[in-house]
Structures are given as C-alpha cells and as structure tokens.
Amino acid sequence: MIVSRTPLRVSFCGGGSDLEAYYSKSEEGGCVTSVALNKYVYVTVNSRFDDSVRVSYSEMEIVDDFENLNHQLVKEAMRMTGVTKGVEITTIADIPSKGSGLGSSSSVTVGLLHALHCFAGRSPNPKQLAEEACKIEIEILGQPIGKQDQYAVAFGGCNHIIFNQDGTVFVENLSNEVSLKENFSLIYTGITRLANDILKDQNNRTNENRNNLDLLVIQAKEAKKMILEGNFSGLARLLHETWICKKELSPNISNDEINLMFQKLFDCGVEGAKLLGAGGGGFILFGGGHDILDKVKSVLPKNKIIPLEIDYEGSCILYSD
Question: SS3 breakdown of the chain: % helix, strand, coil, rounded to 5?
C-alpha cells in the first residue's frame, strides 16, 4: 500500500497572473506569493486481487477498464504513470474540496501522481509532479486554471513562484522559518461555488483586466519583500489592496453575502482580507492578532476558523509497503 499526503495552498498575491493568457503575453511573465497550508489531501493506492480498478472519493467506482472511470483526474493520472489496472485508489481531504479556494483539485492531482509513481517504483521530484499535474489539468483536460496551485502544493513551504513568458516556472523559497499563524487566519464563508465558471469568465477578460493583473504582479513582489522583512502588518494591509483588484477581474468573484462578511471582519479591526481561489465562496484569508481573532469568533461564531500554519514538506509519501 502507498499513502501520499499533499498540502492545500493559500495565495497572498498574484493570482490570475499564472494564467497562460496573461504570462505568455507579458515580458516579465507573472508571479504569485503563496504558502502551502498544513491541511492535506491523502491518496492511497493498494493492489487488488484482480485486474479491476476501484476508486473511492465522494463517490465509488469499480470498472474493468480504467478508461471507463468518471473521475477524470484519476483516469489521466493512471494513464500518465502507467498504473492502469489491478489497483484500489482512495482520496480523503482534511477540508471539503468543493469550492474551498485552497487549490484542492491540484492537490488531488499531485497526490495521485505521487502515489501512483511510488506504486510503480519511481520517486518523482516536486518539479516533475507539478509539471505533470499542469499537463493533466490544463493541457489534457482543458481546465481554465493557472499553474500556481500545482507548484505550491508539490514543493510546500512559503514561496514566490514566477511564471515566465515561455511557460517555464521558477520556485523561490522565501524561508523555512516563516511564522504566520500569529498574524493570519482563514475563515470559511460557508458558500461553495464552481470555480471553473468564474475562471472561464476571468480568462475571457484577460485583455481588459491586464492593468489590474499587472498591479497584482507588483503586489506579489511586495508581498515577497514583506514576508522576508517580517512586515506582517503591511502584508495584511496589502491583502485589502489585492482584494480590491481581484474583485474587478470578474463580477462573479464577490456577492452581497461575501461583501457583508468582509464588512463584519473590518468592523472587528481586521487590517486586511481577501477571498481565496477563484472567488464566489470558500475561505477568506485575513490578518490580525489574538485580540482581533477573539472578536471575529464572537461576531461570526458559526464560521469555521483555522490558523495559517505552513506545511514545509510539500507532497510526500507517508507510507510505502
């Protein structure tokens, strides 16, 4: 049996510049400053008695031919790794994957690839896992997403990720000792949405959004500097600037319910906040110490809050036998 563990991710600034429609037409490319979160997707791969394939996630499938699987990420990961029969695959997540804004789809893809490669006797590095996940999600399945999630979760840690005009990606690790949990938290909106619908609209608006995307790239570079300097108060305020820019990328990114939640956060003294992922729901990242956190908990008692704790391992194999 093989068990892989792959973190989710939290992006501070730069989201949207990792879309090919942007970085391929920008001389400086795009960039994102993000962290891997210590909340995970687990994938297990085990041999079956016969040549059939069993896949268990929110649904359960048993097929004689992997080509008949409905779970497209599993199917393509099996095809890419050559592990196409006689296996049982399960996926489990610490946080519900639908519409979380934490890059869970890419965490699943990277985790699947890692576990299947290991099952076949191979030890892929983070770069290979990220590249193969991008190929599956973007090139093969045609999802309207960027490249930030795959690299963030494969490498782990706190990173400034650069997307070059030619499609290559460079991951700059900012520190192995960054502590953000005293200054930042995540709060769940309780709203789920289909990220692809929002991302398709955002993709189609790339040309008209170019000025805002240019600004998001500048903010990602500023976020990198603030993290290196330990300027977490400035980083929190930068989140607010990023959220203002992000909302202009598509009318579907925010709504009245989300706007009201932001207002409640600011009434509690939060210095800055932004909705993670494509928008429309999921988790909000906000800055503030323990005194502010206590106020938020009292004002929004039904909304789940988790600290921003970093995973430094990236995708890894927990068990191999």
Answer: 40, 25, 35
Q: Provide the domain count of the chain.
A: 2
Q: Is 110 helix (H, G, I), strand (E, B) or coil?
A: helix
Helices (H) and strands (E) in the chain, counts: 10, 12
**Run of H or E including 149:** helix 148-155
Query: How many residues are present in the chain?
Result: 321
Question: Tokens 């497209």 appear where?
Answer: 72
- Which residue type is seen at 169? V
Q: Which two tokens stand for residue 21?
A: 């429609």
Q: Residue 306 in contact with residue 285, Cβ under 8 Å?
A: no
Give the closest residue to 87 by CA, choosing from 105, 70, 73, 75.
75
Give the C-alpha separation, 315 to 43, whole Å: 11
For residue 224, give its domain range.
184-307
Residues contacting residue 183 through CB under 8 Å, at least 6 positions apart: 232, 233, 235, 236, 287, 288, 289, 308
Residues 10 and 129 in one domain: yes
- How far apart CA 276 and CA 14 sit, in angstroms, is 11
Instruction: Please state, in angstroms and as integers, the Cα–Cα distance from residue 176 to each residue in 114, 221, 309, following that order.
Output: 23, 19, 12
Question: pLDDT of 40-88, one tens digit each?
Answer: 999 999 999 999 999 999 999 999 999 999 999 999 999 999 999 999 9
Tens of pLDDT, residues 164-184? 999 999 999 997 667 788 899
